[in-house]
């Protein structure tokens, strides 16, 4: 059953810079800030319902319009979900990396970024995640990635969805590294890199059976290095893997813009 959580005291007002002026935050912003902090601190968890309006109004000493404005702030940040007409109220929805993925993709499109830019950025993120995961010695994580290679990736090859299944392997590997910042950065690039890989495979550089087998050997070698605990070797192997893959996937597509692939 979803739960409601006791409320924390409202944070004191603090000045906010706006251009060259200093203003005090609106009451709705203070209420939203207190509730936001409760989510960040784990007092409000994913799936919890906020207390009802009457309780919130009494606790914060605010009017219904002010309270609803505060909830709209949180809703715009994707921290709560409000079902209009429902009697259950606002429900906490802790976002994942997807909350920044779409805006980031749009920004890359608007800036004229190329797919080469994105692939280079990925090469800077994933090798460090590999090193962290290797040094963590997390056998359960290695087992999970092994199952992905043994089950999901072969299905992807057979069904023409190799880009999607290998993309999920990459995304999950970074997630398992335990570094929240790397995970968010990888999540931002995930959809773009998957779409580019699928585009390259179907339009320009379709992989042969030999290419697929070489890819699988490289993945298996990575897992061997991870299980050995040699973080430096695992990082170096993955950096070389990504550099090679980038060269192959960009053949003839070096100047293709992100917007041309995202559609």
Automatic annotation (TrEMBL):
Keywords: DNA-binding, Transcription, Transcription regulation. Pfam families: FCD, GntR. SUPFAM superfamilies: GntR ligand-binding domain-like, Winged helix' DNA-binding domain. GO terms for molecular function: DNA binding; DNA-binding transcription factor activity. Residues 25-95 form the HTH gntR-type domain. The keyword Kinase does not apply. This is FadR family transcriptional regulator. The lineage of its organism: Bacteria, Bacillati, Actinomycetota, Actinomycetes, Mycobacteriales.
């Amino acid at each position: 059953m979803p739960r409601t959580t006791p409320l924390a005291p409202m944070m004191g007002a603090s000045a906010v810079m706006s251009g060259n002026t200093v203003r005090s935050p609106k009451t709705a912003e203070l209420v939203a800030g207190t509730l936001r902090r409760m989510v960040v601190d784990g007092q409000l968890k994913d799936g919890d319902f906020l207390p009802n309006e009457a309780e919130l109004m009494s606790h914060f000493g605010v009017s219904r319009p002010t309270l609803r404005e505060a909830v709209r702030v949180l809703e715009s940040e994707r921290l709560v979900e409000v079902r209009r007409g429902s009697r259950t109220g606002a429900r906490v929805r802790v976002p994942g990396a997807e909350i920044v993925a779409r805006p980031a993709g749009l920004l890359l499109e608007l800036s004229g970024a190329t797919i080469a830019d994105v692939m280079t950025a990925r090469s800077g993120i994933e090798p460090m995640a590999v090193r962290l995961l290797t040094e963590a010695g997390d056998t359960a994580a290695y087992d999970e990635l092994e199952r992905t290679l043994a089950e999901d990736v072969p299905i992807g090859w057979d069904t023409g969805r190799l880009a999607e299944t290998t993309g999920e392997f990459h995304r999950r590997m970074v997630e398992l590294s335990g570094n929240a910042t790397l995970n968010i950065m990888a999540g931002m690039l995930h959809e773009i890199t998957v779409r580019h890989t699928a585009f390259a495979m179907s339009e320009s550089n379709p992989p042969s059976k030999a290419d697929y087998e070489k890819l699988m050997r490289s993945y298996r070698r990575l897992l061997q290095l991870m299980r050995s605990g040699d973080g430096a070797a695992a990082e170096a192997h993955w950096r070389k893997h990504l550099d090679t893959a980038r060269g192959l996937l960009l053949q003839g597509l070096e100047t293709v813009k992100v917007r041309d692939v995202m559609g």
